[in-house]
């Protein structure tokens, strides 16, 4: 219902465009609303991939298709919240079986172009990072670095461990050191996150980093999948503004259609800012 209301409000803001142009823009808006993000999760077995996804995302999970237990086909899970979907791709561990690394490299090269973001989990007490480093250089390479978000998982296992319900100052200092180390090793595009699912620590910041690291088309539908506590104002504001910008880009696309009459172009330019702000306003109706 609110969905329809949102669409109608957007349609109204396009009244002054010729029908073909407003139809084009509405079609784009439909696609943006229904975009299904694909997020890859990397990390050695036991890094905490499943636990982290369960902590962050609310969606009901359904395994996708006839999953064969071969490395060429990673496990895919489809999450659903209302009418929004997102796919998680559980990518096999790096450097866990040397002889299969070539096979993994091929799998990653095949998957990377289709992923909106890769969460690369490194367990807080994992010190064997040489393989990760090698893999990052060789397989991810320059082309896909912007898609990788490093996450230090299970931060409560940072020395000196106490098993308590809060991180000690010493632990926090050591986590900061680990973050610095990862920055030196990987030169990541996005800042490294640190989380503990057991202590529910760092997850909010991680959600903010995710929404900032995703391509504009993917941020809003990802936010729709987040558990309530992580849908903070900052997270929503970034997604809302991404949505506005993508709708603006749809108008620009129509503007760039060859041989479009000059007066139509003028009208599109004149309404652009209004449509973008309407899109931001109705964001809550959609996501
Ligand atoms: N102490 C602690 N244990 C965790 C945390 N996250 C996950 N684990 C545990 O680590 C183990 C492996 O987690 P899992 O999510 O299955 O890892 P996956 O193999 O990467 O999917 C499980 O026993 C989890 O309960 C955490 O933040 N802190
Ligand atoms: Mg798992």
In words, what does this structure look like?
The structure is a single chain. It is built from 10 helices and 7 strands. With 287 residues, it is an alpha/beta fold. The chain has a 7-stranded mixed beta sheet with strand order 2-3-4-1-5-6-7, with helices on both faces. Strand 5 (117-123), helix 5 (130-144) and strand 6 form a beta-alpha-beta unit. Helix 2 packs antiparallel against helix 9, helix 7 runs antiparallel to helix 8 (216-223) and helix 8 packs across helix 9 (233-255). The mean pLDDT is 92.
- Radius of gyration equals 21 Å
- CATH topology call of the largest domain: Rossmann fold
Overall mean pLDDT stands at 92
Main sheet: strand order: 2-3-4-1-5-6-7
Structural class: alpha/beta
> From the 3D coordinates, which CATH architecture of the largest domain would you assign?
3-Layer(aba) Sandwich
Compressed to H and E, one letter per element, the order equals HHEHEEEHEHEHEHHHH
- Extended strand count: 7
Mind sketching the topology for me?
Elements lengths: L1 H12 L5 H15 L4 E5 L6 H8 L3 E4 L11 E7 L2 E7 L10 H11 L5 E7 L6 H15 L3 E6 L15 H18 L6 E2 L8 H11 L2 H8 L9 H23 L6 H25 L1
Parallel strand pairs: 1-4, 1-5, 5-6, 6-7
Antiparallel strand pairs: 2-3, 3-4
Helix pairs in contact: 1-10, 2-9, 7-8, 7-9, 8-9, 9-10
The structure holds guanosine-5'-diphosphate and magnesium ion.
Short précis:
The chain has helices at 2-13, 19-33, 49-56, 101-111, 130-144, 169-186, 203-213, 216-223, 233-255, 262-286; strands at 38-42, 60-63, 75-81, 84-90, 117-123, 148-153, 193-194. With 287 residues, it is α/β, with parallel strands linked by helices.
């Amino acid at each position: 219902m609110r969905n329809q209301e949102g669409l109608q409000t957007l349609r109204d803001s396009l009244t002054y465009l010729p029908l073909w142009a407003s139809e084009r823009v509405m079609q784009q808006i439909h696609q943006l609303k229904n975009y299904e993000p694909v997020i890859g999760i990397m990390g050695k077995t036991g890094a905490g991939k499943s636990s982290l996804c369960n902590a962050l995302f609310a969606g009901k999970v359904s395994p996708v298709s006839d999953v064969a237990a071969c490395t060429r086909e990673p496990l895919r899970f489809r999450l659903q919240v209302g009418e929004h979907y997102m796919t998680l791709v559980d990518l096999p561990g790096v450097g866990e079986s040397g002889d299969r690394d070539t096979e993994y490299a091929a799998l990653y090269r095949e998957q990377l172009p289709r992923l909106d973001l890769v969460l690369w989990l490194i367990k807080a007490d994992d010190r064997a990072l040489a393989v990760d480093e090698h893999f990052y250089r060789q397989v991810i390479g320059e082309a896909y670095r912007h898609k990788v978000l490093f996450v230090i998982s299970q931060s409560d296992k940072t020395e000196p461990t106490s098993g308590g319900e809060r991180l000690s100052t010493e632990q926090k200092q050591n986590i900061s050191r680990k973050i610095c180390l990862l920055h030196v090793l990987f030169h990541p595009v996005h800042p490294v996150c640190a989380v503990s699912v057991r202590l529910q620590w760092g997850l909010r910041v991680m959600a903010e980093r995710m929404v900032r690291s995703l391509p504009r088309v993917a941020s809003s539908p990802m936010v729709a999948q987040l558990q309530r506590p992580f849908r903070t104002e900052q997270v929503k504001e970034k997604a809302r503004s991404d949505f506005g910008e993508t709708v603006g880009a749809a108008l620009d696309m129509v503007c760039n259609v060859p041989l479009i009459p000059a007066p139509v172009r003028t009208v599109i330019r004149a309404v652009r800012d209004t449509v973008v702000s309407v899109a931001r306003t109705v964001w809550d109706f959609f996501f």
